[in-house]
Amino acid sequence: MSRFLIIIYDSGIDADVTEVLDRPPITGWTKLFDAHGVGGTGRKANDPAWPGLNNVALIALPEEAVQEVKERLRAVQALFTKKPGITIISTPAEVLE
């Protein structure tokens, strides 16, 4: 069974997240940039009242790889004094050939 991960994260940690995405067991990913939203670290709308933006990474991978990727992303969060937002959503997926 495959899983589809939607990873929403603070755009300021894009380089760190990309390092995670570029390592096995991940074999491919897609990123969307400059997302606005509200979450655990507050509203982000890229304006003076609500500074900041999010990026979104989309990944399909085997179910047994999800825990490893989650741990790597949480390790990225732990690098910072003020924990940047990272939301990981996992759902079943069927990768069509």
Structure, explained:
- With 97 residues, this protein is an alpha+beta fold.
- The protein is 22% helix and 39% strand.
- The protein is built from 2 helices and 6 strands; from the N terminus they run E-H-E-E-E-E-H-E.
- It has a 4-stranded antiparallel β-sheet, with helices on one face.
- The mean pLDDT is 96.
Global shape: globular
Helical element count? 2
Spatial order of the strands forming the largest sheet = 2-5-1-6
Give the rounded overall mean pLDDT: 96
Low-confidence stretches: none
Tell me how many strands there are.
6
This entry's quaternary arrangement is: single chain
User: Rg to the nearest angstrom?
Assistant: 14 Å
**Major sheet: size, sense and barrel closure?**
4 strands, antiparallel
Query: How do the SSEs run, as a string of H and E?
Result: EHEEEEHE
Instruction: Tell me the structural class.
Output: alpha+beta
Estimate percent helicity: 10-25%
What distance separates the N and C termini? 14 Å
The proportion of residues in beta strands is 35-45%
Concise account of the structure shown:
The chain has 97 residues and is of the alpha+beta class.
List keywords for this structure.
4-stranded antiparallel beta sheet; 6 strands; 97 residues; two-stranded antiparallel ribbon
